[in-house]
Amino acid sequence: MPKVVYTSLNAGDGPHNEIFKTAGFDGAPVADSVNLFCEDELIAAIQGAEAVIAGSEPFTAKVIEASPALRVIARTGVGFDAVDLDACDKAGVVVTTTPGVNHHSVAELTFALLYGAARGFPESDRCVREGRWKRIARPRVMGTTIGILGLGRIGQAVCTRAVGVGMKVLAYEPYPNEEFVKEWNVDLVGLDDILARSDYITLHLPMSPETYRMMNAEAFAKMKPGAVLLNTARGQLVDEVALYDALKSGTLRAAGLDVFDVEPLPTDSPLLELDNILFSGHLAGLDNESHRDTFTMAAETTIGLCNGEWPEFCIQNLKAVTDWSWKRD
């Protein structure tokens, strides 16, 4: 009976439990008391597991090397930068994601952060709680320009919502879907142009050497004065020191952040001093529907690999491998 451990957030409930049970897997979530962002605790939690249904916890080379039974890391989401792919390639561990099932959830949280930042949250909430009646007029969202960096599934879901609320859409996308761009009247522009023209910049790019800290002091200086930054993609896209300075100085009006360079966000982060940032804790891809669908896909992908299938659409590593097997030699 293959053993699978659930380390992903809220993994105790969902259709994956019955799917794994029916397929003859022994599946169980990690105890809430385990700090999954500590390498040693993560190693201890997954010992003996052949598969892990994973969240954003870091599967480093140390974790991979200390988990000899491991065959599959199935991420419940589309990001995999917390997984050391080179170490997984070396160990023959397949890394999978769940593309195409949580883009609407991310788009909705992007707009929750956009509207909250636009209307002065969290400061407005704090004022009321503290007995301060502070009324400030702020720019209307309708009629403003949103710049979408990355026009994949998530960026497209943000775009259609932006058009629906009367925003002008600019996009930076090296490999655009031309049919979508034409249908939704998207203006494809260069990076400097999108920074200079947008009232809101929203990030939907993967983390790579090219995108690492692309939103830095130089980029913030090029942005439209009083613009708002939204990040529901990857924390490493943003230089947080430069962001703090831009928000503190008023170069940027506000920010909405769901992801951070270090997660969980350290409680001594200077960002927490600012009233013009609206925070959430890496929750963008997590609504009831995406929870169901991502866990279902992760379970079915894992079972398929165990049964000799190779769901290439979901696999993020071992690109040149043609003879992978669940059972080690």
Record the SSE blueprint:
Blueprint: E1 3-6, H1 16-22, E2 26-29, H2 39-45, E3 51-54, H3 61-65, E4 72-75, H4 85-91, E5 94-96, H5 103-118, H6 123-129, E6 145-149, H7 153-164, E7 168-172, H8 178-183, E8 187-188, H9 191-197, E9 200-203, H10 217-222, E10 227-231, H11 240-249, E11 252-257, E12 277-279, H12 288-306
Parallel strand pairs: 1-2, 1-3, 3-4, 4-5, 6-7, 6-9, 7-8, 9-10, 10-11, 11-12
Helix pairs in contact: 5-7
List keywords for this structure.
single chain, 329 residues, alpha/beta, Rossmann fold, 2 domains, seven-stranded parallel beta sheet, five-stranded parallel beta sheet, 12 helices, 12 strands, globular
In short:
The protein contains 12 helices and 12 strands. Helix content is 33%, strand content 15%.
Structure explained in plain terms:
This protein is an alpha/beta fold and 329 residues long. The protein has two domains: 3-101 and 287-314, NAD(P)-binding Rossmann-like Domain (Rossmann fold), CATH 3.40.50; 103-279, NAD(P)-binding Rossmann-like Domain (Rossmann fold). The chain contains twelve helices and twelve strands. The chain has helices at 16-22, 39-45, 61-65, 85-91, 103-118, 123-129, 153-164, 178-183, 191-197, 217-222, 240-249, 288-306; strands at residues 3-6, 26-29, 51-54, 72-75, 94-96, 145-149, 168-172, 187-188, 200-203, 227-231, 252-257, 277-279. The strands form two sheets. A seven-stranded parallel β-sheet has the order 8-7-6-9-10-11-12, sandwiched between helices. Strands 2-1-3-4-5 form a five-stranded parallel β-sheet, with helices on both faces. The two termini are 18 Å apart. 43% of the residues are buried.
